[in-house]
Write a structure and sequence with these properties.
By secondary structure, the chain is an alpha/beta fold. Helix content is 50%, strand content 12%. A seven-stranded mixed beta sheet has the order 1-2-9-6-5-3-4, sandwiched between helices. Bound molecules: fe (ii) ion. Residues 186, 190, 254, 268, 272 line the site of fe (ii) ion.
């Protein structure tokens, strides 16, 4: 089964399962470069499937480390000499983002980070993506996150949207529980943050509301039982959530999250989850006389679809949801002694902060960490 993303952003193809990946590779490409996670390629079961179908002679670039960083120019040179005619990314958001950066370096001949000026990109290598986590939704966005000296940057261009995406839930089944939880929280956060974006559209809001419902039902089931049907729902939810943030961008909880992830190793989804509840509550107090603004209407719609009675009650509902999953709801419960809200707020990502529908002070940002 495959379908075309029905939004204004793209006409890229999404396929269910891996069968069509091998059909496309055999039909259209001779020298694919596989960009894979150093451990996840084997652990997810993807390596066995790929080698069974294509044999052992594969061009592989392994991605390790904790955060995506710019590809080394010498490695880009080595890969370029293999003359790949497409990139197949198999992994989580980190791997997919690295593949996107490589597609710029190889296709656009921009070898270094400083040269990632995308105005003059003519053609990048075709990008085929197989996510092995249900979280980042990077396979559905035209963004690539990259960390330079521990600081998060975002590369954005329509040509970074993968040409084909293959969703195979069996690859997600082996995710450790902690990774599955963090990834699932990222999916939910993408949906909620997109609903509160000034860039939200009627279409993005409809998709976000239905997707957040699916994700909040599937995540506890997947975390407790590891069932394939729950993994499949989460994988599709992750993709839909990626589609909506491609339109709306992420919001304040993401803006506050990167410091804890880069400097203290807090998993991305858990870091974002810390302030999601307080952020929605803060905005729900700012909705008076804003009924003509979609984000304000969306706060009430969110309460209806998640079935908590008070539209100002998202924070309470969210903390109960996190506690049920055994996820930290505060900086203190993460066990980070040397970090406080003031430090995090001072290091907020300004680009994502600018997506808030109301202007927030430094004090507002710090209060978002109150438990
Ligand atoms: Fe995220």
């Amino acid at each position: 089964m495959s379908y075309t993303i029905p939004n204004e952003l793209s006409s890229r193809k999404i396929h269910s399962g891996l069968d069509s990946l091998f059909e496309i590779l055999k039909k259209s490409f001779q020298r694919p470069l596989f960009v894979v996670g150093k451990t996840s390629f084997a652990a997810s079961g993807a390596e066995k499937i790929v080698r069974n179908m294509l044999g052992d002679v594969l061009n592989i670039h392994e991605v390790g480390g904790r955060l995506p960083e710019p590809p080394q120019p010498s490695r880009v040179q080595e890969i370029d000499e293999l003359r790949p005619d497409c990139i197949v990314a198999i992994g989580g958001g980190h791997v997919i983002d690295t593949a996107k950066l490589l597609s710029i370096c190889l296709g656009g001949k921009n070898r270094q980070w400083e040269e990632f000026k995308l105005e003059c990109v003519s053609s990048l290598l075709p990008l085929l993506v197989v996510p092995t986590t249900a979280g980042s939704g990077s396979e559905a966005t035209p963004f690539a996150v990259v960390y330079i000296n521990g600081v998060k940057h975002s590369v954005e261009h329509s040509t970074l949207l993968p040409d084909h995406v293959f969703l195979e839930p069996r690859l997600v089944l082996t995710n450790p529980r902690s990774m599955a939880l963090a990834s699932g929280l990222d999916v939910i956060s993408h949906c909620v943050e997109s609903l509160l974006s000034p860039k939200a559209t009627v279409q993005s809001s409809e998709i976000a509301l239905s997707t957040v419902c699916s994700a909040v039902k599937s995540l506890p089931i997947f975390a407790q039982t590891g069932r394939l049907d729950a993994a499949e729902k989460l994988l599709w939810a992750s993709n839909k959530a990626g589609q909506v943030i491609a339109t709306t961008r992420t919001n304040v909880p993401h803006a506050l999250s990167y410091f804890l992830t880069a400097q203290h190793g807090v998993p991305h989804g858990c870091s974002v989850a810390l302030t999601l509840g307080s952020f929605v509550d803060l905005l729900s107090g700012a909705t008076v006389n804003r009924d003509n603004e979609l984000w304000s209407v969306n706060i009430k719609r969110l309460a209806r679809v998640l079935e908590y009675s008070d539209p100002a009650g998202f924070g309470k509902w969210w903390r109960t949801f996190l506690s049920g999953l055994g996820v930290a709801t505060s900086i203190a419960s993460l066990g980070l002694q040397a970090v406080d809200a003031q430090i995090i707020a001072r290091n907020v990502n300004l680009e994502r902060l600018a997506n808030s529908p109301v202007q927030l002070t430094q004090m507002d940002l710090e209060r978002l960490f109150d438990d």
